[in-house]
Structure formats: C-alpha cells, structure tokens
Known about the structure:
The protein is of the alpha/beta class. Helices cover 34% and strands 25% of the residues. The strands form seven sheets. The protein has a nine-stranded mixed sheet, sandwiched between helices. Strand 27, helix 16 and strand 28 (538-541) form a beta-alpha-beta unit. Helix 3 packs across helix 7 (183-190) and helix 8 packs across helix 9. The longest helix is centred in the middle third of the chain and has 21 residues, at 225-245.
Amino acid sequence: xxxxxxxxxxxxxxxxxxxxxxxxxxxxxxxxxxxxxxxxxxxxxxxxxxxxxxxxxxxxxxxxxxxxxxxxxxxxxxxxxxxxxxxxxxxxxxxxxxxxxxxxxxxxxxxxxxxxxxxxxxxxxxxxxxxxxxxxxxxxxxxxxxxxxxxxxxxxxxxxxxxxxxxxxxxxxxxxxxxxxxxxxxxxxxxxxxxxxxxxxxxxxxxxxxxxxxxxxxxxxxxxxxxxxxxxxxxxxxxxxxxxxxxxxxxxxxxxxxxxxxxxxxxxxxxxxxxxxxxxxxxxxxxxxxxxxxxxxxxxxxxxxxxxxxxxxxxxxxxxxxxxxxxxxxxxxxxxxxxxxxxxxxxxxxxxxxxxxxxxxxxxxxxxxxxxxxxxxxxxxxxxxxxxxxxxxxxxxxxxxxxxxxxxxxxxxxxxxxxxxxxxxxxxxxxxxxxxxxxxxxxxxxxxxxxxxxxxxxxxxxxxxxxxxxxxxxxxxxxxxxxxxxxxxxxxxxxxxxxxxxxxxxxxxxxxxxxxxxxxxxxxxxxxxxxxxxxxxxxxxxxxxxxxxxxxxxxxxxxxxxxxxxxxxx
Length: 570
C-alpha cells in the first residue's frame, strides 16, 4: 500500500517563496496602482491573459483535455483557440471590448472559445449551463452582448431572446436551430493564421462572471486582465514554491492529471483548474455531469493525480472507492472548493486514500477565486480552516461591525485586498459600493476567524444563521456535526419559524443508501458535540442530493421554499 509522499513543511515553502519573490523578476512584488489605489502587486506581471497561451505551447505535445471520445493536445487546444479568435474577428467583427456570451456545459470547445475570445480582445461572459430560458434572458439583457456561442441545449433556451435582443447565435455544433454559424466554421475560417496582433490594457475587462444569485437576481462581476493575471500568478507562485522545496521536482510528477468535476463557467473551474493547468501542462479530464462511479472509472483509466470538486463529490468518490475496494493509487490530492468540507470527511479521505493528501481553498467570483489555501499536513492538522492568505499580494483581515479590525480568534466579516479584486458589479454601482471600500478592500459577506498562525476559518455567512431565542446558531457548525455521522451523506440546516422562539433549527439530510436513522439516534450522536439549543428540532429526509446552484453551493433559498411550504412541520 502506497503512503503519502512527504511534502515540504509550511516553513520550507514560506522560505522558498520569499526567495523566489526576492530573486525571480517575474514574481517581483512592489507598489502598483490599481483603479487609483496604490497597493502591493506583481510589478513585472504579464499585461494580459494571452501569456497563458504562450506558456501552454511550451508543452504542446502533451495531452491537454480529455472528454468522452475527444482528446486534444495543448498544441491543438491553442491552435483552435487562435483560429476561433481570427474567426470571431473576421466573421463577426469582434473588436477589443466586445462582449461574447459563452453558454455550454464542460467540453473542450468551451476552453477553445474562452481563450479565443480573450485572444480577440473580447470580453467573455460565461453563463451557467443549467440556467433556464428566463434566467438566460435576464443575463443577456444585463450584459448587453450581441454575440453568443452556445451548446445545443443552451441554444434552445436562447431562441425566445434572439429577435427581441438582436442576437447572433453560434452553435457548438452545426445544424442547431437559430444558429447562423458554428464552432467548426469559426475554426476553419481562422485556421493557419497568426494570433491577432492587439494591445490589451491590463485594466481592460476580460470577463463578466455572474454570481450564484442566492440573495436575489444574479450580479455580473466584471473581472479585469490584471485581476485574473494576479490570481494565476499567485497560484503559480505556490506551485513554484512547492517545486523548489521538493528538490526541484514537480510534486505531482511529470504527468499530472486532474479530474474536472466543477463547471468551467464558475471561477473555480475556469481559474483554479483550467487556466492554471495551461501553465503546468496538466491533463484535464472533463465530466459532463457528476456521477461518482464515472469519476472513479476516469481516475483509474487516466491515472489522474488530482481531483477538484465540491466536498460532496470527494465524499461520494470515497464511498464508491470503499464499495469497490480500490485505493485509486494514482491520486495524490483531492481538492475542494465552493463550500466547507466537514472535518470528518478529511479524516475519512486520509483513511481510504492513504497515498493522497487533501486540500481546500477559499475564494469568490469577485476575487478571481483567490483568497486562502490549505493543503497537505496543515490541512490534516487544521481541517476546519481554509488556510492562510495566498502569497504574495493577498491580504485578509477580520472586521467587526463598527469597522475596526478584530483581534486574533474573534469572529467578524472577512475582508480581502489584492489586485485580483473585480472592478465592480455590472450596472449596479450601489451594490458595488456596498462591498468595495474606497481603498479597495472587498467585504465578502462571510463570517470568519483568523488564528494565531494566520489560518482562516469560515464560521458562517452573515445571513446564514438561525436565531433561536436570542441565541445565534451557526448553520455550518450544525451541518459539520451532522456530516460526521457515518450514515449521513449530506446535511443542510435552515431556520424554521417559531412563534415562541423566533426560529427553531431544521435539518435536511440525505442518508447513505440503505441506511435507517431515527431522530433520537441522531440527537444522541450530536449530544457530545452540540449544545441542546443547537440540535435540530425537525428533520427532512431527502430522496436526492441537496439542490445546488451553478457554483456547487447549496441553494438555501430554494431549499427553504421547498421545505417550509410542505406543511408537515411539527
């Protein structure tokens, strides 16, 4: 049985990163000006994201992406991306600043179109591939794009909006109703031509990503080239630090591969997985839809070293691997994002996959997915933490309601500062002003605590709490305790209106297949971990996984609406 490859210590990596920042010109840190605010940044950073395409061509013969029967090398991916860029310019008049909607599920063409729009100087508007026609209509009107590249199913939902909004629809496949062009035609028109020669300002928009809209209509977060470049370079700095501290060898070997189980239209997928892979030459194996059995098959067949998904995904892979009796020996890291992974899951991953580390990160759409990162021995020691601020230009602080900085160990709102921050919310100056301070600190809306080592733990959302008889109860705390039960696969906690107490704690749970668990048994299990007032007074047993939005986060508003209108609450 393989054991985990010993990783360098936090202290070793910190020293190496300090050395790299001081001696590698690309990672040199100094004062920059970003939207009129002077702050720390990478003074020699590439001006725009096209540097990723040049970097990818350094390993042009390596496999870039695998999806069903498609298998592209990096050379093919970048070649198609440049062809798309030329096709968009020549056939559709795309110029710098032109907004182009990208609406499809995970596939290699999504990647080529994403890079192609950037290479043409355009602004990518990735839309949630699961959105309804009504939601798509809202996004189209909000962003004002006139050009759409869509998958077949998404194109169908676009049809009612084409004529009223004067839209041009390009299909990912030929013959899709309403489409006047196709991906293949774009590639054919632009093939064999050099990349467009354009000057792109570092502070120019590169994308508009729509937030999950859990508290109302989705908001379009406008991201710039500087912001995304800062995020990618920060990820790269961690990788460089790990490599140097590992004796100059890549920690995940010369043939790294990652299972992409998160949607590319979300920043975790597009930034932390896709764009960082362009730098390292990592093979990306895509899933059209989530299935734990398929995930195990792909990890085994492609000998993947990494997996990135929401915590439920790694947990379900663990259960499936246990059922099959496989250790998935190629796996070296199981990363999670989008939600907090219960500490009990971290322990179980370590037990079932003795050769693999697990990791977690914290970031938001508004921060280009950059924030904090926790991995290897640190994550095992502090599984409830999402880690320390990603070096070298990200700052995190905890702020009290009165605006003062909270001391170590005190909970407050998490604020982030970095050149990676978004420009603002599209068409919503008031919403922008509510979360961005004049000196460009971003108010995340998450409640967190920093410990004496600088590790951040998210304890709740500002509004995701149950207030029972004046007592504030963290939904995440109760959910984490429930998730520790071996028969509970998933749990979500909400407040139940109560005339006497204001609210009671309610929990929706999904049990392991075949398990039977009575309420009193759950309460007995929770007694050592939660005070009586925190333990759920009512349970709903679900027949399917918890509802989630495009980011992978549990749709709490939708869950409340579903559960609290059933009329069966005692």
